[in-house]
Amino acid sequence: MPTTSVVVATFLVILATVAVTNGFQIPPATTNTATTELGSTMSSSLVEPAERNAVYGDNIAKYLVDLHDNQGTFDFCGGMMFQLVLSDSLRNYLEQISSDDGEQQPSIAKERRMNQLDGYSQTAKADNVRIFHGREIRKVPDAAGGMGFVLQLSMANSEDPEGWSPQEVAGYDGWGHDSGRQWRKSDQYEAEGFQIFKQRFGPEAFGLHHRFYLHYDNANRIWLSAEDGCEGTPSVSGSSNLLRKVFGF
User: Fold this and answer.
1) Does pLDDT of 123 surpass 80?
2) 88: Cβ–Cβ under 8 A, 6 or more apart, which residues?
3) Using an 8 Å Cβ cutoff, are 81 and 27 in contact?
4) 94 φ, ψ to 5°?
């Protein structure tokens, strides 16, 4: 009979395989002490649900701005740390509406997958309320979290210089698996109109565009979820592991 440790190890391997099959690939472990410390300066009100509710309530615009300003990190797939970066246009817009309790505030869904949202369709449409345009960007030298990963959100339906290019909009197929989609390198981003891509993320960075939305889990944590189902929750380290994600503890 296999030992308990063998059973647990086997279970974790299966979960990791599911995570990879479902989207983001788990990279070799890397460490960048400086950027890890940057991520660890997040206040507990950005991470813990009860404190988040006490500080922000329903002001999700202010919450997102503070995550960005504090180089907040999201834990994807039990240890892949992505820094949240808002485009200047989106950050300014969210700051402006952070005093508005109306319908402009970003919403947080109860549905666990984007395709379960009312009115969902496989398009490139986003409204900056329920659904956002975004990118996962890799090989970013100074990304908080120490892994070189960034999740950038930008303004949809506007003249955001950092937003999706017409080519990204026309070719969007984010409901499919990453391996079959078009990744872009820095030169292509700049040729298509994101002229400060290298300045913001470095010449070696590359990325893939996704639509994102926010939803709650059973523990009242907030998850930032891509259309293909890959998702992460605010964390100062890789503490939100696969077991927590599956079982909600």
Assistant:
1) yes
2) 161, 162
3) no
4) -65, -35
Closest by alpha carbon to 170, among 124, 212, 227? 124
Do 96 and 59 contact (CB within 8 A), yes or no?
A: no
Paired with 152 in beta bridges are: 85, 135
Q: List, for residues 88-119, the tens digit of each pLDDT value.
A: 999 999 999 998 766 689 999 999 999 999 99
Q: Answer yes or no: is pLDDT of 179 > 90.
A: no
Query: Please, are residues 156 and 133 in contact by the beta-carbon 8 Å criterion?
Result: yes
Q: How does the average pLDDT of the chain come out, rounded?
A: 84
Measure Cα distances from 133 to 49, 141, 187, 199, 244 in Å: 25, 23, 20, 20, 27
φ, ψ at 144 (rounded to 5°): -60, 145
Please give the model's pTM, rounded to 2 decimal places.
0.81
Provide the token pair at 71: 């180089």
